[in-house]
Design brief:
Length: about 350
């Protein structure tokens, strides 16, 4: 069954989190936003080559889902995956180093913006292939099931992936075997420049869960509490052996598809209407209204993020480039416990 859910009709998931945890989630959302703004500026200065896909405006979906995951749980990500990476525990300085192509990056500068992985925090990797993370998530969930481990996989993907064959194959297999995976569709309304209204037959992507006999829920993806509550229910279902679920988060990217996108397919009015529903501002307002934070605490939190981002960029600038002699090294992952794993394991 597919349903639409808003935070006003849900149990108070905020009661599950301490005030310290809520402050941490707000800081994480600011960290994701400022990381991407910093990465964008570095790109404009020519310090980052290639392209990048920013998730500015989508911070609540990444943070809300990862808020209910355990460290030993896993995620698969997308080409727009910086937020997922940070929300699962990655450190921005190593991410900046990866963007800058430096040896101290998470993948020693070989992955760049679209292919960051951090095994120490359970991030199985971003993916430049639309829908590419779906079968990887199913494979990881199958491994967890066979090893009888009490962990789950959260599989992030965009609305464009729901029309790929891998989406249907993955949901079908996960349902048949009752695998511990939660499929999280970040529906930002456009697959590149094509609106979901023109590309997808169903009104809500969550409706497609019906074909595979699993729960399908659509939530306001710019509402941290709505995302976290729906994700908590889906994660608990998966963790208890009841199988997968499909969570659709309705959200919006403030920037274009990539840095090469001229953004001519969206009206200024549409973009501004979504910016007015910015997830960070809404979360801050909710915490202020609940008396969970004050303006001085927000200012201190934002300042600490600014300092971390500035330090991360300097770390990346000053890190060494890979040696030419190591060109063919590190193509395959090292076994857990190797030097790279230890360096980034917090």
């Amino acid at each position: 069954m597919s349903t639409d859910v808003g935070s006003e009709g849900l149990p108070r998931i905020s009661e599950r989190f301490s005030q310290k945890a809520l402050h941490g989630f707000l800081r994480q959302m600011h960290l994701i936003r400022q990381f991407e703004e910093g990465a964008e500026q570095a790109y404009m200065r020519g310090q980052v080559h290639g392209t990048m896909h920013l998730s500015i405006g989508q911070e609540a979906s990444a943070t809300g889902v990862c808020a209910v995951l355990q460290r030993a749980d896993y995620i698969t990500s997308t080409h727009r995956g910086h937020g997922h990476c940070i929300a699962k525990g990655a450190e921005p300085k190593y991410m900046f180093a990866e963007f800058f192509g430096k040896d101290s990056g998470y993948c020693r500068g070989r992955g760049g913006s679209m292919h960051i992985a951090d095994m120490a925090t359970g991030n199985l990797g971003a993916n430049g292939i639309v829908g590419g993370g779906l079968p990887i998530a199913v494979g990881a969930a199958l491994a967890l099931q066979q090893e009888r481990r009490p962990n789950v996989v959260a599989c992030f993907f965009g609305d464009g992936a729901n029309n790929e064959g891998a989406f249907h194959e993955s949901l079908n297999m996960a349902a048949i075997w009752k695998l511990p995976v939660v499929f999280v569709c970040e529906n930002n309304q456009y697959g590149m420049s094509t609106s979901t209204q023109r590309s997808t037959a169903v009104q809500r992507i969550a409706q497609r869960a019906q074909a595979y006999d699993m729960p399908g829920v659509t939530v306001d993806g710019n509402d941290f509490f709505a995302v976290a509550e729906a994700a908590a229910q889906a994660v608990e279902r998966a963790r208890s052996g009841q199988g997968p679920a499909l969570l659709e988060c309705l959200t919006y990217r403030h920037r274009g598809h990539s840095k090469s996108d001229r953004n001519r397919y969206r009206s200024k009015e549409e973009i501004e209407s979504w910016i007015a529903r910015d997830p960070i501002g809404r979360f801050q307002d909710a915490l202020l209204a609940r008396g969970s934070i004050d303006q001085a605490q927000i200012a201190a939190l934002v300042s600490s993020v600014e300092q971390e981002i500035a330090a991360g960029i300097e770390f990346a600038k000053n890190s060494p480039a890979p040696e030419l002699s190591s060109l063919t090294s590190f193509v395959y992952t090292q076994a857990p416990g190797g030097p790279r794993h230890d360096r980034h394991d917090r």
